[in-house]
Amino acid sequence: MKRTDSQELAAALLTGERPVFHPNTGQEIAKGETIHLSPSARAGLEAPRYCQICGRRMIVQIRPDGWQAYCSRHGEVDSSYLDQR
Ligand SMILES: [Zn+2]
Known about the structure:
Layout: H1 8-14, H2 39-42, E1 59-63, E2 66-71, E3 75-78, H3 79-83
Antiparallel strand pairs: 1-2, 2-3
This protein binds zinc ion.
């Protein structure tokens, strides 16, 4: 698989940018619609399954201490990034 060097997804998460697609369901989020994340997802404990920018299914790896998710377009996010906030 070709890997991207994009940091777009990580940047969007770190800046708290509003997701375009729901990270758990992949549904497009309408403007003005409230985003409901499960409590564990909000706490960064649950790995996102879909890229919040493009809605693509991400490659997710679960580790004992967290997770890593990868969108072929927008790059990689790691739960450890979120801990650093
Ligand atoms: Zn993406």
